[in-house]
Amino acid sequence: MSNERIPQLKDYSEASLTRAFAALEAEARSAAATLLSSEAVENFRLAWLGRKQGLLNEVSSLWLKSAPAEAKKILGQRFNALKATVESLLDSALGAGPSDASLAAEAIDITLPGTRRLTGAEHPITRTLNELTSIFAALGYSVGVGPEVETDFYNFESMNFPPGHPARDTQDTLVIANQDRRPLRDRLLLRTHTSPVQMRTMESQPPPVRIIIPGKVHRNDAADATHSPIFHQVEGLCVDTNITFSDLKGTLDHAMKALFGSAVKTRFFPSFFPFTEPSADVQISCPFCGGKGCRKCKHSGWIELLGCGMVDPAVFAFAAEKQPAYDPKKISGFAFGMGVERIAMMKYGVSEIGKFYSGDMRFLEMFA
Ligand code: DAH
After folding, report:
1. What is the DSSP letter of 115?
2. What is the dihedral of CA 252, 216, 279, 143, to 10 degrees?
3. In angstroms, rounded to a whole number, what is the distance separating the alpha carbons of residues 59 and 21?
4. CA-proximal residue: ligand 1, atom 6 (nearest)
5. E strand or H helix that includes residue 218
6. What's the CA-to-centroid distance between 151 and ligand 1, angstroms?
7. Cα of 235 to ligand 1 centre, how many Å?
8. In 10, 29, 82, 297, which residue has its Cα 20 to 30 A from 364's Cα atom?
9. CA 125, CA 347: separation in Å to the nearest integer?
C-alpha cells in the first residue's frame, strides 16, 4: 500500500520517525491555519480524521501495521501524539467561531442612525374624557360603560321617551335595518346619548349610585364646523336618599371650576329633558373674556355647556322593575350630560370639530 501524501519510512530509527511525523504535523498545522468556513473545518476533519479516507487512518495502515514488533510501541506513541495534535487543531478551529474574514464580510454599519419612533400622546378627546372622569372620580364616582349598539328600550323608552312621543324627534337616530318583525323595544339603534347607561347601571345595582359614563354616541346630523354624526358625551348619575337640586348645583359648579379654572361661574336655566324633572341647562361664565362679552360668547358673557336635572320618577319606575329599591318615595337623584367635543374645543381653542377626526399629525402633535 502506498500514498503519495504520506512519506516513505526508510527505517524505524528515532531520527527518521521524528522527521516523518514532523512533516505530517507541519502539514496538519498549515492546513488548519486556513480554515475560514465551517465547511472548510468539516473538510479538514474528513481529510485527517475520516474513518475511511482520513490521512491518519492511512498512516496507521501504512506505517503501523507493517512495522516489526519491536518498533510498534514507539510508532504507536508517535502516532497517538500526532492524532492528539490534529484533534486539538480541529477543536480550536471549531471553537474559534467564524474567522475575521467572514465576520468582516457580514458586518453591518451600526453607526447609521436608527428609525426614530414618535412617542405617543393622548388624543385631545381622550384627554378631555379622562380629565372629566378623574374630576368625578375624586368625588367618589365610579365609571360605567354600556353598548354603542343599543335597544330602543334603553335609549328611549326607559328614559321616558314613550313610543311615538315627539321628544324622540330631538335626536335624529340611526337605526339598524330589517328589524320590523321585532317588538319596538328590542329594535337596535346606535345610541344617541349616554343616558341609557343610567338605566343599565340602576338595573344592575341598588342605590346609592354615583356613576360617570364617558362614551361615544351617534346621530344622523350633517357634519359642520361644530357638529359631527359621531361624537362623545359624559353622563353623570347620582342616586341616594335626600339628594336635592342644591347637590346638583354644587357638584356641577365644582366640576366646571375644576375644568376651566376657579374663576368660572355657573348659572342654571329651566329646560326640558324627558328623563329629568325639573330640568336645567347650565351656562358657565365665558372663560375667554371672563364674562365681559366677546365674540366667543356672542357678547353675552355666558356659554351654554350641559344639560341636567333631577331624575324623573318615571325613570325610577322603570329601574324599580328590576331593582325595587329605586322607589321615588324613598330616594332621589340627579343626572347630567355634556358633549365632550364642545368642551375640548373650548379648552384647546379648536374652531372646527372635524380637526379631532382627521388624523392630521400637525394638529395632533400640538397635544404631545
Ligand atoms: N342625554 C341628553 C342629550 O344627549 C343630555 C342630558 C341632559 C343628559 C340632561 C342628562 C341630563 O343626564 O340630565 O341631549
Report:
1. P
2. -50
3. 10
4. 337
5. strand 209-218
6. 17
7. 7
8. 297
9. 11
Ligand 1 atom closest to the CA of 198, numbered from 1: 12
Encode the chain (368 residues) as per-residue pLDDT tens digits: 446 777 777 788 888 888 888 888 888 888 888 887 888 888 888 888 888 888 888 888 888 888 888 888 888 888 888 888 888 888 888 876 666 777 888 888 888 888 888 888 899 999 999 999 999 999 999 999 999 999 999 999 999 999 999 999 999 999 999 999 999 999 999 999 999 999 999 999 999 999 999 999 999 999 999 999 999 999 999 999 999 999 999 999 999 999 999 999 999 999 999 999 999 999 999 999 999 999 999 999 999 999 999 999 999 999 999 999 999 999 999 999 999 999 999 999 999 999 999 999 999 999 98
Distance CA 30, CA 93 (A): 12
Task: Report CA torsion sign: 22, 27, 30, 33.
Answer: negative
Q: Is 174 exposed, middle or buried (0-12, 13-18, 19+ CB in 10 A)?
A: middle
Q: How far from 129 is each of 110, 125, 143, 214, CA to CA, in Å?
A: 43, 6, 11, 6
From residue 281, give the alpha-carbon distance in Å to each of 100, 221, 302, 336: 79, 21, 12, 9
Residues with a CB atom less than 6 Å from ligand 1? 193, 195, 235, 273, 276, 307-309, 335-337
Instruction: Assess contact for 312 and 277: CB atoms under 8 A.
Output: yes
Q: Which three cell numbers stand for residue 211?
A: 356613576
Ligand 1 center–CA 175 separation, angstroms? 20
